[in-house]
Specification:
The complex is a heterodimer of chains A (about 150) and B (about 1400). Helix content of chain A is about 35%, strand content about 25%. Chain A has about 150 residues and is α+β, with helices and mostly antiparallel strands. In chain A, strands 2-1-5-4-3 form a 5-stranded antiparallel beta sheet, with helices on both faces. Chain B has about 1400 residues and is an alpha+beta fold. In chain B, about 30% of the residues lie in helices and about 25% in strands. Chain B is built from 26 helices and 57 strands. The longest helix of chain B is centred in the first third of the chain and has 36 residues, at about 185-220. The radius of gyration of chain B is 61 Å and the shape is flat. The chains are: A alpha+beta (about 150), B alpha+beta (about 1400). Chains A and B meet through helix 1, strand 3, strand 6 and helix 2 of A and helix 12, strand 4, helix 13, helix 16 and helix 18 of B. Chain A: InterPro entries: Longin-like_dom_sf, Sedlin, TRAPPC2L.
């Protein structure tokens, strides 16, 4: 987990519309991550048709020093995590944990009766942002899998 | 044979199956290059081919070169592994012009030993030649083989065998695998021969390369150790030209050569090993000091050898990657590639050619591109890219890991040195520890639970590498531009400065100047684009397209760039990627500005104003200002000419203002004003629109163009005074949004614009909603829809129209949505809202309240109808009875402003449209009744064209239409007759009339509908009890009547004329029943009953049909529940007749009760004097009927006796009943006829006394035509003592009776049971099969027990059910002894 350096977390709706994109890495512009998130839609859809049983889709592609990981829920909401990787092995288990936390955060958010699930609008929620922020910075938040997190936040 | 030489760069085939040899054809004169040893021996060194060894001064490698491509070419093209000489055998016929041609000197007379000397000469020289070649080949270790081609003439020559043997032996060639004879043959045979030849020579070839590898291995092992001796002589000459190749260099040479030979041997595994070793050695030469040869200095940067070594390293790396791909280890290949890049990045920095120099980026770009090419070629040749899916065992999991660690061990284990330290870059401090980072991460195998994958080592398709390369190209251009800025002169060499201590060389600068970087970038991006397209990554191609467009922009090709931007913008817009879209728009604006496409600029700026486009407030303001300045500034560069009108379909772009129109009501009426509202709301929250935006006009277009509305604001931009006379109200809602309401319902028709026009201020203020309320007055009936709303901005140069076509919500049956590509957010139509202005009626000056009210969901359309001002009322007394002519009074009032003639249609809607209705509506019940009795009545559910006239006036049947005066009521009574089904009926009356509008010639017809429901219930309910009457009743009756009382047998057969049947009195079975019918008035209304009559089913036809004409009111069809009972009765009657059953009415209802008398108190014609039968009244009628069955066996279980015919009418309390009497037939429950089986009757005294014996007589009847055998048992009773037979078997003949007398002695008083007489019919069954003994055991006698029932018993419970169930016992009332006074 310590070697995972999240640069961006993106959530994409089922119409391939962006729902949430958070940049954790100031070295790239937001635009870059928007592009990356957008381009990964195709890869995810292709991946998802190949194997439908798992929501975690693994590494989608790498571009320059960024690796893009994907996760697609059963309702076709896509989660994307972009990592800035040193040349190390990223354990699937770690990535799955991250995605599960994102998924949990999203489910929490979507459970809000005032949130229109099909509104195709960007998610604007302080709580949700905090949760994603915590995931992106590698901090534990309530409900997170503490075991997979380092004792001290990097 | 040569066709197999077309070996592509990608050739991943192994062994015999693949292309076996690289075949180099040579002239016959070709000789192998002599070996060095041979030359030394013969002192012919000067003749030697140019030596490629660094030791030779003539070599290009002298003195310290590593290896040259020449060497590879030599081994590829000059030195074979197998040398095959193809020679012709001399033939006499080839001597042209020889007269003796065809004649051999000695002919072939001598079979043995005689040889033609001429042939021998030639053969000897041939053999000699072959021998020499063989020797030369042998010296090199090359396998030699000869192919002798024969001519056709040889085939007939018997000496040919000897000649060939001679040649072979003389040349010292082995018969096996070295000497071949090719007879003349066709192409197919030749190619087969070639393949076989290659097969047979394959081993020799392998051996050759094996030997070569072995030889070089030996040479390598003979080298002195690198660590042991750093030759002292080298140090002073460091960097000098006299420096000879180091031991490490030699090691590299040998490793490389071994790799090359292994590759030739098609031994990919070993080739990789050798190449990797060579690569390691080579890499080690680049640092400042080598680790393998401690202390040895590395290659000097920017020298010739250094450049060569760099290229060599690149090539070697690529070769290694390729072989790994051959071996299907894509991750390892990628690993090697990336390692190469990382290592050289570190080196480049130490050479001061780091990532700030264009040289580095040029190099890096080339690496990516070449690797991409490799992958591209590979995938085209069938290489499969790995799919990095989580959890897959093959890749990315444990297996992948071990593969990774394995190849690292391989790498570090071949003597590169201590793998942990890896390659040091030198003392400069920027040491790059390769082994530590990569090796540790991978080789360490930190694979904990679950699998993992290094994303950097997931091989992707070539598109990514091309893209990477393009990125490098961009970087390269940037660096180069910087460099050129610093050193602009192409003739002067760059001089190091303090800020740039290591400038690029003049040569490289000039070389770089010749390169079109942008074209290169575009080429690479396009290549990448194609790759992604091939891999169906559509969105990635968009990304690349945006990069291409960006490059075009940089290159100054704005038009191309704009084209690209426009194309890709659509997808991003559709999918809501607004940040990207904003970026694209920004670029597009730049491009359009450069091109002077100001229309486009305006379009993009308008879209940029949308709050969906993320931007800072300052940016928003600048966009807004720019737009305004373009639109309104005359001196702006954009406004040199008047622009063409610009029409922007707003649903296709992101809009800053939303636009909704709706009508207040769903329906509107002709010639009356109907209100509509246009809501212009700014999108987004506060600050989305920085300033007020002024529209020049708003045009609302309706489906009827004569109703178009146009609101105009002619003010110039700088004037802000209130415009127009329209009433304005404004307020702030809870969210701080300003809501402004303008009343514009007073528009003037403007013939110029062909629209209703008014002047009004049209400023769209930040964070506000502008509501314009208008009204339209349509003049003809139609459906009105808003087709389009146009917001216009008109200035001197510009005429911009923002169009909002109204979106059809998909309603049932509507035309499908338009083909336009709408923005996703506008797919759901917003909730319809109406801004309601509520004013305090008392205080007109106080500000009115504005409030949004939700309207029902509905289309934005108003179907227009003429409003009818007619009132319709109905009067009736619900519920109505079935069968009666139910009066309904319909009153219609003329509410119009002028008298009209009205017509009314009345329709009785069927209950179930699939069934023909029998209900009818009539105007005159008496007439209807007459026609009914005459049989000419047609049940009509509709009444058409009733002319309405003033109430109270007599109904005029004439066709003269009378106008109904204004405000007058017309009245019309209709009569509804409903049959059978007691459900509510819906009656619809439509009032039609025509009005002429003042401005129209044509009269417009108007209609008003009124529907109401009437509940219908049956008037009467009847329940019948059938009480069987004992024989004596019939006997007495019979004696009175006729001689039928005689013993039946003595009677003669009677032909019943009525039914046409012969009745055999002896066989007929007669039963008499008392029918007790209770008739109840169910409904709430009193009725008058004129007559109640039992119509016996068998009489019904005879009675009803002839009488229908004659008797008034008793018509057969008149209230009959036709399908329900008549139909059934007819069927039944028919069948009754068939089975010979007759039902006769013996005595009418006057029996017992004088029912008729009560109704006809005052007998006579005065029907109105009939006593009303009030609600809930119950009346009982008794009838005695006789049922005569010719054969009881055939009789059905139920017999329809008939129905009660009631003639009645509704009783009006005021006494003036106008309704005629109607007939209702009340169906009666069917009579259950006893089955044709034995039964008992009991004859008991009226009562008994305790302790006084009495006699009970049981009569057992056998009405069947068979002899019955009965088993009788008597069960004792508690209250009675019986003396007599307890068990007996009886046999009763057909139609015979048997009586049993029982003398009983009552013991107790009260209702007491008699001893039960149980009779069981023994029905003998035909013998069963004998096999079924077990079955027979259960029924040893084989009889079926059928209890004989007792009829006409008085039960214990009471008199309700006189028929007794099985097992019932007769009871008798026993009086106490003392109770008797006698």
């Amino acid at each position: 987990m310590a070697n995972i350096n999240i640069s961006c977390i993106a959530i994409i709706g089922k119409q391939n519309n962006p729902l949430f994109i958070k940049n954790f890495n100031p070295s790239h512009a937001d635009l870059k991550y928007h592009y990356i998130a957008h381009t990964s839609c195709d890869v995810m859809e292709e991946r998802a048709t190949m194997k439908a049983q798992d929501m975690y889709l693994g590494v989608l592609f790498s571009m320059e020093d960024l690796s893009v990981y994907g996760y697609m829920t059963n309702t076709k909401i896509k989660f994307i995590t972009v990592l800035t990787v040193p040349d190390v092995i990223i354990k699937d288990l770690d990535m799955k944990n991250i995605f599960r936390r994102i998924h949990a955060a999203y489910v929490n958010h979507a459970s809000n009766p005032f949130y229109e699930i099909d509104s195709e609008k960007m998610i604007k929620s302080k709580k949700f942002e905090q949760e994603i922020e915590a995931i992106g910075r590698g901090r534990a938040l309530e409900g997170g899998n503490r075991n997979s997190l380092p004792a001290t936040a990097p | 044979m040569l066709s197999r030489n077309n070996v592509s760069y990608w050739d991943n085939t192994k062994g015999l199956a693949g292309s076996l040899f690289y075949v180099v054809p040579e002239q016959a004169a070709y000789n192998l290059p002599p070996t060095r040893r041979f030359l030394q021996q013969t002192n012919q060194l000067h003749l030697a081919q140019q030596s490629l060894s660094p030791t030779a001064p003539s070599s290009p490698l002298y003195p310290d070169g590593l290896i040259t491509p020449l060497w590879i070419r030599r081994h590829r093209e000059q030195i074979p592994s197998v040398f095959i000489a193809v020679v012709d055998l001399w033939d006499r016929e080839s001597i042209v012009g020889n007269a003796d041609n065809g004649q051999r000197g000695f002919s072939d007379k001598g079979p043995l030993g005689v040889v033609d000397p001429m042939e021998r000469d030639h053969d000897t020289s041939l053999a000699q030649d072959l021998l020499e070649r063989r020797k030369v080949s042998q010296e090199r270790g090359v396998k030699f083989a000869a192919v002798v081609m024969l001519q056709r003439s040889h085939m007939e020559d018997p000496s040919i065998e000897d000649r060939l043997n001679f040649v072979r032996k003389s040349a010292g060639l082995d018969i096996k695998n070295s000497f071949y004879v090719l007879p003349p043959s066709n192409n197919q045979e030749i190619s087969d021969f070639a393949v076989n030849l290659q097969r047979s020579q394959y081993e020799g070839s392998m051996n050759y390369y094996k030997e070569q590898v072995k030889r070089h291995k030996k040479k390598r092992s003979n080298l002195p150790s690198t660590t042991a001796s750093v030759r002292p002589g080298q140090q002073p000459h460091a960097g000098g030209s006299q420096q000879t190749l180091s031991v490490q260099g030699w090691m590299f040479r040998y490793d490389f050569k071994m790799g090359m030979f292994s590759e030739c041997k098609q031994d990919i595994d070993n080739a990789v090993k050798f190449y990797e070793s060579a690569y390691g050695l080579l890499i080690d030469m680049f640092p400042v000091t080598s680790t393998i040869t401690p202390g040895a200095p590395g290659l000097q940067a920017r020298t010739r050898r250094w450049a060569e070594a760099k290229v060599l390293a690149d090539c070697l790396c690529l070769k290694i990657c390729k072989f790994h791909l051959y071996l299907d280890a894509p991750s390892t290949a990628l690993f090697n590639f990336r390692r190469h890049l990382i290592v050289f990045k570190a080196f480049s920095e130490s050479w001061k050619m780091g990532d700030d120099s264009f040289e580095y980026w040029a190099w890096l770009g080339k690496q990516y591109r070449v690797f991409g090419d490799l992958l591209d070629i590979g995938t085209k040749a069938g290489f499969k890219l790995p799919i990095p899916s989580p959890g897959s065992v093959v890749y990315g999991s444990f297996a992948g890991m071990t593969e990774g660690s394995k190849d690292l061990n391989k790498f570090s284990g071949i003597g590169v040195g201590n793998g942990a330290a890896g390659f040091g870059v030198g003392p400069s401090g920027d040491a790059y520890v390769y082994g530590g980072s990569v090796g540790g991460g991978r080789g360490g195998g930190t694979h904990g639970p679950g699998a993992g994958v290094n994303p950097m080592l997931v091989l992707q398709h070539a598109g990514y590498f091309y893209h990477q390369s393009a990125n490098c190209s961009v970087q390269r251009r940037l660096r180069f531009e910087m460099a050129e800025e610093a050193y602009p002169d192409s003739a002067v060499a760059p001089v190091p400065t303090s800020s740039r201590p290591y400038p690029p060389t003049l040569q490289s600068m000039n070389a770089e100047r010749a390169i079109d970087h942008l074209a290169l970038t575009i080429e690479l991006l396009t290549k990448s684009y194609e790759q992604f397209k091939r891999h169906k990554a559509g969105r990635m191609t968009l990304f690349l397209a945006s990069e291409i467009a960006g490059t075009y922009y940089t290159a100054g090709k704005f038009e191309m760039a704009l084209k690209f931007f426009e194309r890709i913008g659509k997808t991003y817009r559709k999918e809501g990627w607004n940040l990207i879209l904003t970026s694209i728009l920004k670029w597009s604006i730049q491009c359009a500005k450069e091109l002077g496409f100001w229309e486009n600029v305006v379009e993009y700026l308008i879209e940029m104003m949308s709050p969906d486009m993320p931007a800072t407030e300052a940016k928003r303001l600048s966009v807004f200002d720019e737009l305004l300045s373009i639109l309104h500034t005359k001196i702006h560069p954009a406004n040199t000419s008047v622009h063409k009108p610009l029409v922007l379909p707003m649903p296709q772009i992101n809009s800053f203002v939303s636009c909704v129109v709706q009508f207040q009501t769903k329906q509107a009426f002709v010639a009356s004003a109907s209100k509509f509202q246009l809501q212009l709301a700014t999108q987004g929250g506060q600050g989305a629109l920085p300033k007020s935006f002024r529209l020049s006009y708003v045009l609302i277009e309706f489906s009827d163009p004569t109703l178009n509305h146009r609101f105009e604001d002619p003010r110039p931009l700088d004037r802000t005074d209130v415009q127009g006379s329209s009433e304005r109200l404004s307020m702030k809602d809870r969210t701080g949004r300003t809501v402004e309401w303008i009343n514009c319902d007073r528009c003037v028709y403007d013939t110029e614009n062909k629209a209703w026009k008014t002047i009004v201020g049209l400023d769209i203020n930040p964070h506000s909603t502008l509501v314009i309320e208008g009204a339209l007055t349509p003049e003809k009936e139609q459906i009105i829809q808003v087709t389009k709303i146009t917001l216009g901005v008109v200035t001197e140069q510009w005429n911009i129209a923002l169009e909002y076509p109204t979106i059809e919500c998909a309603e049932e049956g509507d035309q499908a949505g338009s083909q336009l590509n709408y923005m996703p957010l506008q797919k759901n139509p917003p909730r319809r809202q109406w801004l309601e202005v509520s004013r305090d009626p008392e205080d007109a000056s106080s500000s009115a309240k504005l409030k949004f009210k939700h309207l029902d969901k509905g289309a934005k359309r108003a179907p227009l109808l003429r409003e009818s001002k007619v009132e319709i009322q109905t009067l009736f007394k619900s519920p109505a009875y079935l069968d009666e002519f139910f009066p309904v009074v319909i009153k219609v009032r003329n509410g119009e402003a002028f008298p009209v003639a009205m017509e009314m249609d009345v329709e009785l809607q069927p209950i179930d449209p699939s069934i023909e209705s029998l209900d009818s509506v009539v105007l005159d019940p008496h007439a209807a009744l007459k026609s009914l009795s005459a049989g000419s009545f047609q049940a009509a559910q509709t009444l058409h064209g009733i002319h309405l006239s003033k109430a109270g006036r007599p109904l005029s049947s004439s066709s003269v239409v009378q106008d109904l005066a204004v405000g007058e009521w017309a009245e019309q009574t209709i009569f509804v007759k409903a049959l059978e089904i007691p459900t509510p009926r819906t009656i619809v009356c439509k009032v039609r009339y025509e009005v002429s509008l003042e401005n129209e010639q044509k009269k417009s017809s108007t209609e008003k509908q009124h529907a109401f429901r009437v509940q219908f219930i049956p008037p009467f309910d009847a329940a019948v009890d059938y009480t069987p009457q004992l024989v004596h009743v019939s006997e007495t009756k019979a004696t009175q009547e006729s001689e039928t009382a005689l013993v039946p047998i003595l009677q003669s057969n009677v032909v019943d004329e009525k039914y046409g049947a012969v009745i055999v009195p002896a066989l007929t079975h007669t039963e008499v029943y008392l029918m007790s019918t209770r008739v109840n008035n169910e409904g709430p209304w009193p009725v008058q009953v004129k007559e109640v009559k039992l119509i016996i089913g068998s009489e019904s036809t005879t009675l009803s049909e002839p009488s229908a004409g004659g008797r008034d009111g008793a018509g057969g069809l008149g209230g009959l529940s036709r399908s329900h009972s008549i139909g059934r009765m007819r069927d039944r009657k028919k069948s009754l007749q068939e089975v010979g059953i007759r039902v006769e009415l013996l005595d009418d209802g006057s029996i017992g009760l004088d029912g008729t008398g009560r109704f006809f108190e005052v007998s006579g014609d005065s029907e109105s004097n009939l006593r009303p039968w009030r609600s809930g009244n119950l009346q009982t009628f008794n009838h005695l009927v006789r049922v005569i069955a010719a054969d009881l066996d055939m009789a059905p279980e139920h017999i329809e006796i008939g129905y009660l015919r009631v003639q009645w009418r509704r009783f009006e309390d005021d006494g003036n009943a106008t309704a005629p009497f109607v007939v209702t037939n009340i169906p009666l429950q069917p009579l259950e006829l006893p089955k044709a089986q034995p039964y008992m009757t009991v004859d008991l005294p009226k009562d008994a006394l305790v302790n006084r014996p009495f006699t009970a007589r049981y009569e057992i009847h056998n009405p069947t035509g068979k002899t019955q055998e009965l088993a009788m048992t008597v069960e004792p009773s508690e209250g009675m003592v019986y003396a007599g037979v307890m068990q007996a078997t009886l046999r009763i003949l057909p139609f015979a009776n048997y009586s049993i007398r029982m003398n009983c002695y009552p013991l107790q008083a009260g209702l007491t049971r008699l001893p039960r007489v149980k009779l069981v019919i023994n029905k003998r069954k035909p013998n069963r099969r004998r096999g079924q003994t077990s079955h027979q055991l259960q029924h040893p006698e084989g009889h079926e027990e059928v209890l004989v029932k007792i009829r006409g018993l008085t039960k214990m419970g009471g008199p309700q059910n006189t028929r007794t169930g099985p097992g019932e016992t007769a009871v008798i009332f026993v009086k106490p002894e003392t109770g008797s006074l006698e």
